[in-house]
Amino acid sequence: MNIILIGMKACGKSTVGKLLAQKLEIKFIELDQEIEKAHLIGKKPAFAKASAGKEKLTFREIFKKHGAIYFRQLELEVLKNIFQEKRTRKFVLSCGGGTPLNEDNKEILKKLGKVFFLDVDEEVLLPRILEHGIPAFFPFQNDPEKSLNKLLEKRRPIYEKIANKIISFKSELPEELVRKILTLIN
């Protein structure tokens, strides 16, 4: 069975995903890294400018330089490729925070495997997010707390709707979350 991890930026999807994949002895896929690879080799959406792609950029730089539409379309293409490959391998997939917001992505994620929403308490989440500065996607750049609350208000119902299981936590260690997920899939 494939395991899909969704949730806000900095909720622990990558850390938990890597540990979980190691425990299950299956592949770990970081969606943002796959987007970076696709961009680098020039697998760009048909509408993209000729200059897009074939450049080594982080997923944040891709988003900033080429825009949300380009990024989300590239994300969708990468998800479709992962879906095509799912018959040949088992994996744990860590999604970006915005991945489940796209209708097409939602359908693919549901078909890919069991979806777990890592729902970390806001008091823990905000400092984690701010470790790298205020994200560009925060609607109120001068009020990070208000931004996070607004985003969670919009995103949490979407995450909850797509998830097969919700893992709510505050300060549990990643190993504890892995154990919780393992009990839920066995």
* Shape, per Cα inertia axes: globular
Task: Calculate the terminal CA-CA distance, rounded to whole Å.
Answer: 10 Å
**Percentage beta strand:** 5-15%
Total count of domains: 1
* Largest sheet descriptor: 5 strands, parallel
What is the succession of H and E elements? EHEHHEHEHHEH
Architecture, according to CATH? Answer: 3-Layer(aba) Sandwich
Proportion of helical residues: 40-55%
Q: Determine the structural class based on helices, strands and strand pairing.
A: alpha/beta
Unreliable residue stretches: none
Number of strands: 5
Mean pLDDT: 90
**Going by CATH, what is the homologous superfamily?**
P-loop containing nucleotide triphosphate hydrolases
CATH secondary-structure class:
Alpha Beta
CATH fold field value: Rossmann fold
Rg value = 16 Å
Neighbour order of strands in the largest sheet: 2-3-1-4-5
Q: Enumerate how many helices there are, as a single number.
A: 7
Question: What does this protein look like?
Answer:
The chain has 186 residues and is α/β, with parallel strands linked by helices. It has one domain: P-loop containing nucleotide triphosphate hydrolases (Rossmann fold). 53% of the residues lie in helices and 13% in strands. It has helices at 13-24, 31-40, 59-85, 103-112, 122-130, 144-162, 174-185; strands at residues 3-6, 27-30, 91-94, 114-120, 165-169. A 5-stranded parallel sheet has the order 2-3-1-4-5, sandwiched between helices.
